[in-house]
Amino acid sequence: VQLQASGGGLVQAGGSLRLSCAVSGRSFDMFTMAWYRQGPGKEREFVAGISPGGVTYYSGSVKGRFTSSRDNVANTVYLQMNGLKPEDTAVYYCAARLGAITIAESTYDFWGQGTLVTVSS
Q1: pLDDT exceeds 80 at position 24
Q2: Which end of the chain, N or C, is less packed with Cβ atoms under 10 Å?
């Protein structure tokens, strides 16, 4: 299974970005997908998860601003990020696992390479 994240970039505070993660190699619709991020000098943290059926779960820091969705035909998961803040600056990773959404990164079996999001103030 290969995951390819894209869509990062530089945006001003208050702006929006949409990240994509394309998955290849196995049946995408079987996977729970998640987004994690790692800011400068910080531990990697859970951002959002989406089940095969589209149930979502968000960390408290992004709930109401970020939305995860998936296209099981295009084998792609998305993270729409609105109302971006400088503290959202991080490398964003997508991850996949079989089973329910969890926040523990050790439970995800497959990872993308990360895409950098920089939010200027």
Answers
A1: yes
A2: C
